[in-house]
Specification:
Chains A, B: Keywords: DNA-binding, Transcription, Transcription regulation. Two copies of one chain form a homodimer. The first copy, chain A, contains twelve helices and no strands. Chain A is mostly helical.
Chain lengths: 215, 215
């Protein structure tokens, strides 16, 4: 068991270090040699976990579509908002999630592995379709279109906010995005009960870790 | 004069070919050797116009913040919307504009040259500030915040729409973005007179070419 724990830790260390390299220098320039230098692991140890750089990139992208911290809420549209708020809180703190975005906008990596945006759009559409069936959305709001537009907007707000010279907080920027979009998607009575504040994600994640500690 | 025309044409040809290379293989992999092969020009001819690949990338980014097709309108907020609609029409048709986005999301190119997003945010903020002074915006709409959020959203909608498997039209996707955001930014009476249709940009550009033909 201890041996297995160590193996999982090493695998995570490889993923995180390679993700940081992708973030810093881009997919093409991130090499196994640089990874060896950064982790201090032998090539043998690396190749025990991953066959190649491509293999690591795929594993990074596999982590991208995550529901960690998500809990059932009174409104489905709240769960849809929570998905985006949780990711906004985590991306600046977790190199692997950040690298998944980086790989999606890199021409070579995108050609090799595609992106996880279609998956995100499908997940969002699922929540919004349920929300619509429950009468939470305005009649003209099309779940597929709203989901796709917000996945795009979310991504661009992240990219632009990290390029601006001011010190912008992604959780706040994404909160503003939802405030701009929600009144045109959600019925007014539901809107009044939706929490899109930048502090919500941190609270959700703390609740989750408390619950798992009890279990 | 004819000689000067030829020089301008050659410069444009270099810019467009290098822009296409940036789009296809990314900044790092786009080389002067590939450019020579693609254009059929000699290295001498290239270096007459640009000192280096970096120099070409800078020239590409200099073309990014463009007001081509923009005309004075009854509402300042219409001019702000027109900026985004015109760009959505042009980006899929003009490799140089497309490459400016590509370079902005490339980690190495971004480190070398920065991005033009802060310029776009400033331009948008200018239009929205004037719109606000004229009473076109809702009281809570902050020109700086709205401009930044929409520049981000615009960029991400472009990136995600070209990565989706469906054949999405950027002008339509951006039109949807404005329809989602405008009701929460613009007063209802002004909103009723704002055109954010996907066909508007093409019409504006045709009007412009007619006018310049007359001038």
């Amino acid at each position: 068991m201890a041996k297995q724990d160590r193996a999982i830790r090493t695998r995570n260390q490889i993923l995180e270090s390679m993700a940081s390299l992708f973030n810093e220098v881009g997919y093409d320039a991130a090499t196994i040699a640089a990874l060896v230098e950064r982790t201090g692991l032998t090539r043998g140890a690396l190749y025990f976990h991953f066959a190649s750089k491509e293999d690591i990139a795929r594993a990074v992208l596999d982590e991208a579509v995550t529901r960690e911290g998500l809990r059932e809420q009174a409104f489905k549209v709240q769960e849809w908002v929570d998905l985006g708020l949780l990711l906004a809180y985590r991306v600046p703190r977790e190199p692997i999630l950040h690298a998944a975005i980086r790989l999606s906008v890199d021409p070579k990596a995108r050609r090799l592995f595609g992106t996880r945006w279609p998956d995100w759009v499908a997940v969002g559409e699922g929540f919004l379709t349920e929300a619509k069936q429950r009468g939470e959305l305005l009649p003209h709001a099309d779940p597929a279109v709203v989901s796709r537009t917000v996945v795009g907007s979310w991504t661009g707000v992240q990219l632009v906010s990290e390029a601006m010279s001011e010190d912008l907080d992604l959780a706040e920027e994404i909160s503003v995005l939802y405030q701009l979009v929600l009144p045109n998607v959600v019925t007014p009575t539901v809107l009044a009960r939706i929490d899109s504040s930048p502090y919500r994600a941190e609270r959700l994640l703390k609740e989750q870790s408390r619950t798992s500690a009890v279990e």
